[in-house]
Design goal:
There is one protein chain. 46% of the residues lie in helices and 20% in strands. The chain is α/β, with parallel strands linked by helices. The chain has a single domain, classed as Rossmann fold (3-Layer(aba) Sandwich). Strands 2-1-3-4-5 form a 5-stranded parallel β-sheet, sandwiched between helices. Helix 2 packs parallel to helix 3. It is globular, with a radius of gyration of 13 Å.
Length: 123
């Protein structure tokens, strides 16, 4: 299984990458939405993208819109992983096509449970 972690915080990318690798994913990283779009094109098949909302260049919501606008990426699951915890933000992300929403802080078991609910199998 392949995952892409998108967050401008290097520490958060390292944390999420470690969690996903422990679950059994091959993981790539990107520091913002623009870089993530490039990485998606390079990676080919991707099962899940975990993306932060607040980033420079292209934020998570803009990234989500770009992914959902490309029919070639219809099968990619996108999980927003962010400190944005207002109901308006959650609804906005889900309406734009996010498959799930996780509020920071979180742990590996929360991520594992969300992946199971999304039907994204892990090792």
């Amino acid at each position: 299984m392949r995952a892409l972690v998108v967050d401008d915080s290097r520490a958060m990318r390292v944390l999420m990458t470690r969690m996903l690798k422990e679950i059994g994913f091959d993981v790539q990283e990107a520091g913002d939405g623009r870089e993530a779009l490039t990485r998606l094109r390079e990676m080919g098949e991707v099962d899940i993208v975990l993306v932060d909302w607040n980033m420079p260049e292209m934020d998570g919501l803009e990234f989500l819109r770009a992914v959902r606008a490309d029919r070639g990426w219809d099968d990619i699951r996108v999980m927003m992983v962010t400190t944005e915890c207002g109901m308006d933000e959650v609804m906005s992300a889900l309406q734009e096509g996010a498959d799930d929403y996780v509020m920071k802080p979180f742990d590996k078991e929360i991520i594992r449970e969300k992946l199971i609910l999304l039907g994204v199998p892990a090792a």
